[in-house]
Amino acid sequence: MNRAAIRYAKAVLSLATDQKSAEAVNSDMKSIVNAIAGSEDLNQMLQSPVVKSSDKKAVLTKVFKDANASTMNLIDTLIDNKRLALLNDVASSYNTLFDRLRDSQIAKVTTAVPLTEDLKLKVMAKVKELTGKEAEVKNIIDESILGGFILRVGDIQYNASIANKLDKLKREFTFN
Length: 176
Prior knowledge:
Belongs to the ATPase delta chain family. The protein has about 180 residues and is α+β, with helices and mostly antiparallel strands. About 60% of the residues lie in helices and about 15% in strands. A 4-stranded mixed β-sheet has the order 2-1-3-4, sandwiched between helices.
């Protein structure tokens, strides 16, 4: 992650915490990350040195019209400092810092089919047991794992997928 992006994220988090709007800004930052990930045009526009700053600001103001004042101030600051290309990294860094501040984390669970609410609660309990922290569960669907699940929380990964078990069996038979 870009060091400048982390510094901007820390500054915005500090300001938002002082203004009691850290939760709202976190929501805005998630929206920014999702919007940029979901739109190649938006990403290219932000990265382009050819598009004028005023045009970038006009687009961002329309796209994020319901954003918190702190979020809009961040966008203005990035434009003024000619660092708007960092917006995605700043938003992502903010989310990470906010989760650390709340002593929370994201547990990515890859499954072949969508998780039920019951399974989601069991995963959250398991993550709490393993790490001692609360976690937000993000379900990723990947039919290639065939069944079972892959759990990833921070640096910890637990692979209980059918594809992984089959691969282990295959390796055992080829080496014997």
